[in-house]
Amino acid sequence: MHALNLPAPAGKPRIVVIGGGFAGLNFVHKLDTDRYQVVLLDRHNYHTFAPLLYQVATAGLEAPDICGPLRKSFRGKRDFHFRMLQVYGIDPIRREVSTGAGAIQYDHLVLATGTRANFFGNTNIEAHSLPLKTVPDARNLRNHIFQTLERADLTDDPVERARLMTFIIVGGGPSGVELAGALSELRRHVLVHDYPDTPMEQLRFILVEGGDQLLAAFSDKSSEDARRNLHDMDIELRFGLLMTDYDGRVATFKDGTTIASSTVIWGAGVTGEVIQGLKSESISRAHYVIDAHMRVQGYENIYALGDVAYLSNEEWPQGHPGVAQVAIQMGKRLAGNFNALVRGKETKPFKYFDKGNLAIIGRNRAVADLPKGLHFNGIPAWFVWAFVHIFYLIGFRNRLFTFLSWVGNYITYNRAVRLVLEPTLEEELRGERGGIR
Amino acid sequence: MHALNLPAPAGKPRIVVIGGGFAGLNFVHKLDTDRYQVVLLDRHNYHTFAPLLYQVATAGLEAPDICGPLRKSFRGKRDFHFRMLQVYGIDPIRREVSTGAGAIQYDHLVLATGTRANFFGNTNIEAHSLPLKTVPDARNLRNHIFQTLERADLTDDPVERARLMTFIIVGGGPSGVELAGALSELRRHVLVHDYPDTPMEQLRFILVEGGDQLLAAFSDKSSEDARRNLHDMDIELRFGLLMTDYDGRVATFKDGTTIASSTVIWGAGVTGEVIQGLKSESISRAHYVIDAHMRVQGYENIYALGDVAYLSNEEWPQGHPGVAQVAIQMGKRLAGNFNALVRGKETKPFKYFDKGNLAIIGRNRAVADLPKGLHFNGIPAWFVWAFVHIFYLIGFRNRLFTFLSWVGNYITYNRAVRLVLEPTLEEELRGERGGIR
């Protein structure tokens, strides 16, 4: 039996980090690896700039524009070791994590596993709807959108076509709002031109929200701006609707409403990616409970960061928001504390610096709540948004190319990436003409 | 029962074209659709610039750089109708093709279906090796390469690691040579830096060719230049070897040689994508036999173009080469003939204008045979190659972005697209530690 290939940490403490998202990435980046060995584990070999996933889903950007290969990001970083692995469990007594390729010992463990889509136990919705949490999700959704329109173009059955041309977006948070806006622009600038034989006026995008407003975490003014903008862009908005079932053809809601649709995009909730093995007191509602030093409750040498962590204090009694800035700042703070510790300096508790909220709804349509109650919309908000996103993208190539892609798309409305790259309709169409779904 | 949605050809003949490759694309582009209705069918909704697939496979370019959405390419073309469909059969008596979504009538039928990988009936090799004929193939190969290296990085079993780090390329034609060169550069500029914990000196790329030279269709001087260049780039060259079996772990050859390898890239042959329904006299060795007017033998209104066609004449007694230029020129000639016919002008027989052969082996390494016996290698050949490819790419965005990607990669050696975007190792690794394949 051979072991997992990993160099011993020569006299230094080994820190194992699980997850290469915003939190893990910023932690590793800032950590002084002259004093610590760091092992980064992730199921994927790349970091995802998640706030732009909706652009990959709507053919505005390609995956490499918003992804950074993790090995490349830390090339040259001393005593840094990446392993592409799924972690199945934590053994806090033996101080090791179990993976598909063997156990890995740690001195300190940093959990930065983020979240996944939450279907609240509804297996039908889980089986038939499309989440938008990962790059494969985004590409899958893009393929689905274009493949569904190709199907709509093939049939002259008006009922079937209407169903194929109805798209439901569940959840009125930033990603639902941004996705709805991007779909509206895709319709206007691409789809109506690409499908001259299909009655594109039948194309419906329905944004369904359980509450009574969009962007609940934003200011009332921004929520209202978002509502008005999406309305102007022919997005149908339905409030107070809770989806209870979806079989791939018909969506059913709690109040009895039904909508025939081939596409449900699920953004109604997330849950923490909790790994088994810690005490139950460490976990609350699928999040690791941490203190201001990011220590998981009940452990001295286990930490949690970002979306999977739950940190409640006076300012944020319900916990911190699940946004990139919290993850980035936690990662930097924890690494700073490790660096301070080894030099005998004092560590500092985490304090979130809220830089505000931004959502883009379309070209020249965006909303922004900045600190001190500053509120933007329209073109100024779009510029702030573009600047912020370019700034936080990983790596020069990504920044340059994403910027060029945006400028190119802005000028030409040319979305070159609208390719259906998955296997074709063949299997489903063969011998099942009437049954196109 | 509803029918396939397709407008009737108002008093004009309908031409149905199967396949949106070089031949079909150029045919449609040149056809006068004031006088003909044209219906283009393809399994995919995009055109592939196949000569650059190896760059997608080796993380030099992303799929949208070498693909053009077919609907976009012909946006604004009068009476042009694209349908994303698989065609299952031809009924020349009823003059219709059968598809998964119903039958389509034609007045003229143009077969431009191209080729697929030929495994010569060896189902083991087919099941375990990786072809490089389509964009999904290329992305699949890229994922496989990086995933295999991630696996190599996980194990300290030297036998297992050696197998994971041995890559076999079968076939010494242009695509095998170009792929081998690109892999060598990937090793030198990316892999040795990305995998500091893996003994990269064990990484082997073996190019296996059944004959006794590379680039058999090129001049002897170019064949020899290619051999020398690949040798200098640490590609192992094995001539006179015919693979007879591959089970995913060990490749076996006719002379009894075996090589332990997790990766066989199959480029040893292609076969025509022939659709059933035509007389047997129309088909010879999986190609449609055509005359100088591209008419399929035995039919007045059925034509074949490009790689799937077999046209023998005095100059090319063994048939024309299966290269993009033949397909492009056939497509243009046939459309020109259709346009002439409707104006009462004379049609012209096809005559191939051979523009020469080009293969890129690496930065500053390329070989070119131009007409009149002109022969290039090194940097001048690379420039010719880059110019030719940029020139034939579809669409301004693709040309611009591909050019920028190349320049960017050239300067920075930064291959941002080395992402494993398929599902992770999880499934295969779970509970099967020793059995990583």
From TrEMBL, chains A, B:
Ranges for domain External alternative NADH-ubiquinone oxidoreductase-like C-terminal: 355-411
InterPro entries, A to Z: FAD/NAD-bd_sf (IPR036188), FAD/NAD-binding_dom (IPR023753), NDH-2 (IPR045024), NDH2-like_C (IPR054585)
Source superkingdom: Bacteria
Residue spans crossing the bilayer: 379-396
Catalytic reaction annotation: a quinone + NADH + H(+) = a quinol + NAD(+)
Assigned keywords, A-Z: FAD, Flavoprotein, Membrane, NAD, Oxidoreductase, Transit peptide, Transmembrane, Transmembrane helix
GO molecular function terms attached to this record: NADH dehydrogenase (quinone) (non-electrogenic) activity
Family stated for the protein in its record: Belongs to the NADH dehydrogenase family.
This protein's name: NADH:ubiquinone reductase (non-electrogenic)
Organism field: Neolewinella aquimaris
